[in-house]
Here is the input.
Amino acid sequence: KGADQIRRLQQLLRDCVYPHIGTLRVNDIDKNHIVAILEQKSGASTFWQDKHDAAKRTQNYVENIFNQAIALDYRTAINPAIWRGLLSEVFPSPKKVHKVTHRSAIHHKQLPRFVKILIELDSPKGSRPDIHCFLFGVLIVARSNEARLVDWGEIDLRKKIWRMPAGKYKSEKDWIIPLTREAIKILKAQPSAKYQERRVFSTLDGGKIGDKKLSSMPKALGFDAVFNGFRRTFRTWCQKKKFNNEASELAMKHLDTSRLKQVYIDDPSGKAMLKERRTILEKYERKAFKLIHSPAPASKLVELLKRANQ
Here is the structure.
């Protein structure tokens, strides 16, 4: 687990689990204790209903902890937090409780205009590392934490790849991310590129770029979107262009289907369909920089900036 994941895990255990079973021996805990955790009061409802994502993560964490306790012979009874066949008989299915909501995203047709406005804000050039970080993340379809925390030790400029280690970010798998031309230019433009040590993107005073700052940037420019929503922008564009489905999903670091898992198993180094993914990202970059490489008339650009600032 990464540092942020560990912090969230510890917080869930401290706030939601320990008050119920923190003082009990692992062999004395039964299903009713776990039910009490998931049914504890939250808002006007229960933890399971009111904060379902957090409740489901808590159940998964606790189930894993008991699995380890059983494996180490600290517990002889069955796992009291297992979902299938036990808690699934007590609680409604997650699909009935939790309605999936997609993060706000712009349409892919808006992408060139957004990139144009974003780049114009970096004035004087190099004064907005948050903009560089945002654009880098968009070009390689990264999540916010991945773009903000990328380390120079993971970057290979000669091979034009980013070696993303398992566990540091959201993914539990190693990934090799192809770096496009503009993404590499952004990396080389960072002050940290001089020595290529530690974190790539930092604020002007050397601190971490905040997650909320990145996510709020599009709305500040007049676009109804958040940082991670640009991953959906990329995916809908891939569908429109009818690119290879597995390559498109792997570009987003998804392993949600048996087919994708098999593709990764066949190439566990993280290079699965690397050539195909690079081709897709290069074409996506050309689309994103369409108005940069073919500038709009000055009067039209001024109007775009004016509307974005309103």
